[in-house]
Prior knowledge:
By secondary structure, this protein is mainly α.
Amino acid sequence: xxxxxxxxxxxxxxxxxxxxxxxxxxxxxxxxxxxxxxxxxxxxxxxxxxxxxxxxxxxxxxxxxxxxxxxxxxxxxxxxxxxxxxxxxxxxxxxxxxxxxxxxxxxxxxxxxxxxxxxxxxxxxxxxxxxxxxxxxxxxxxxxxxxxxxxxxxxxxxxxxxxxxxxxxxxxxxxxxxxxxxxxxxxxxxxxxxxxxxxxxxxxxxxxxxxxxxxxxxxxxxxxxxxxxxxxxxxxxxxxxxxxxxxxxxxxxxxxxxxxxxxxxxxxxxxxxxxxxxxxxxxxxxxxxxxxxxxxxxxxxxxxxxxxxxxxxxxxxxxxxxxxxxxxxxxxxxxxxxxxxxxxxxxxxxxxxxxxxxxxxxxxxxxxxxxxxxxxxxxxxxxxxxxxxxxxxxxxxxxxxxxxxxxxxxxxxxxxxxxxxxxxxxxxxxxxxxxxxxxxxxxxxxxxxxxxxxxxxxxxxxxxxxxxxxxxxxxxxxxxxxxxxxxxxxxxxxxxxxxxxxxxxxxxxxxxxxxxxxxxxxxxxxxxxxxxxxxxxxxxxxxxxxxxxxxxxxxxxxxxxxxxxxxxxxxxxxxxxxxxxxxxxxxxxxxxxxxxxxxxxxxxxxxxxxxxxxxxxxxxxxxxxxxxxxxxxxxxxxxxxxxxxxxxxxxxxxxxxxxxxxxxxxxxxxxxxxxxxxxxxxxxxxxxxxxxxxxxxxxxxxxxxxxxxxxxxxxxxxxxxxxxxxxxxxxxxxxxxxxxxxxxxxxxxxxxxxxxxxxxxxxxxxxxxxxxxxxxxxxxxxxxxxxxxxxxxxxxxxxxxxxxxxxxxxxxxxxxxxxxxxxxxxxxxxxxxxxxxxxxxxxxxxxxxxxxxxxxxxxxxxxxxxxxxxxxxxxxxxxxxxxxxxxxxxxxxxxxxxx
Length: 899
């Protein structure tokens, strides 16, 4: 269908050659597009010269309906399948019958969403089940499928698989697929005198069948006409080969007499699960399937337009560009083609605004204005439409093209359109939930101050409310609706005053607080984050007291959540509001710095925390959060005296971080080489995961790797038992480091486990420690360890990880000591000396002298070893000797140097 003119602009004054097109289609248009596509497809398939073995002709067998989630694409797909199956007009009076010229239609709808659990293999089977309704054997396909199935599902009957798979069971309820496949096998057995039907897929039998096909024996002459069957039977029976089987199905379907055949229509719903715009491996298989079945019509519904017409995708997809897919290009005007449905993606907003108003086929709206409108629309078609009409109005009134500032504008018409059919209570719920990123029915009811859920239940059924069942709070307003109601509600007859909004905000904040999950479980982290972030945003926006948010903040840091906390944009400050931030904003800044500290430079974190503490507005019960993490950042930066001041402040109190602060003081004592003091401080702690991790840190420095690994392992197990993967990852990173100093085989196992635990948490320090463990594991054997260490040093320096930097330099010394490369060891030791400031990490330099039996510089601060220096020296020298022996090096000799 060609784009229709926009009648409003058509009858507007002063259009001055502007051509306005209405680019949207309603559901009636979508059915018309379907019938037009069926007719065009039927005509193409029946045209003289059409062949399913023609791989050069462009394809015109894809109809696409795309748009953002929640606009009704899945409903449309389901109704299309129903209507194509029944051929009746029961779906709606506006939908006519299936065109009689097309004859029999064989529809099959396939839901590709993750919830559907459909694999590519199931898609191929579903199409076979659909064509089984013609009652004609699909000889080439069935023979290949039998071969594939025996290889990939040995001992599992296909019939049993179809029965157990709910989707395929429903698709095959009206077919006799089993008998059709058996008949094909029996024909082959009789023609080639094979032993049994069951042996058709055996390797020896396949060789005989392939030989017969290639020799075009009379017994298999009909199959031999399918020229690519033999190659597919011989190929490796994997997903790649399976993706070429649709050609066989298309070939078989083309052999069916016209009076018994039908038009296969494959409806692929939720195609965004396949069309990942970063990784297109699965999409490539689906595109190949479509390309190889030119006699089938594919109706694709998904959130994104198909990009198969983009030439830049050559190499990622088998066919890309407007030549192989002429009717998928944006300029296509005949069906089957691509149709926009509902909200639009970024690219499609731009496309809409470029084509909505044109003059001599050139866009009328300038690029900078298009960009402003697109960004403010959030993809809502109504906003785009109103913005275009505003553009036309200004152009007509002033005669000049409006600039971007004319569209820093909210349209009251949006709110009027949204709320015009809502009851007063539903409008109350709507306004209230604009304060929330997401919500539940119970939360919406409580926040609105209502006694029953009816209004909230009615609201969540509206099309502008999305639903994600997997989220802690499943409902979410579309972003533009949320913004419009908050900012452009001043003209409605029951509008809220600023006091009304503040009272609603307080009710909402209190209601969110009741949703806090029980303490101590990682499984509740998502809900904790939902409560914390939404509570912070409301309290900051409306200058409310944080209340329960302080407890949530403590939970956030104690449970090592570390997910980003973004500071909410403050509302416009009035003249009577103070310049200093409120307590909620200060708390948000602290948590933002803490979460960012896991990813950013420690100096930035320290600067921000010092600034917030200097304001004096933090709730007293939350001050220790700032003091502790400021002390931790200063410790990582090597500023130990300042770190002790803040850690001591927290350790002397009764906050939940007091124990952590005492552990911090133990870390400082360890970094300064005062190991007995560090041990005494640790022993005063609770025997939890932190206690054992601190012991693990301590014992490897003493050369006791067995005890160190054991205590790290205990720390990890306690953290996992407490459902705290963050602490488990910290402990495992330490275990990987300690293990890598000793046994390389064990190190591999521990490094891999650390990598696994770090997949779902973000800890810069732990990730760096695991990378250092890899250096230690490869020390002595990989000549590239020094280069790898230098690269890792740069990363650690950029992140402000001073302690990690020292351990990396220590690993370089370890490597050269194992290889008896004394000159390089001296250089590496000098580099390690750079990490020694005010005495910290001097013990690492001392240990490197244990490696080669040399005396440290007299000015080097000596460590106070727990078991005395002689015992520790003996342990480290024995460790070096054992590692050298395991590497096959002769005592005191260097390994062969790489050529």
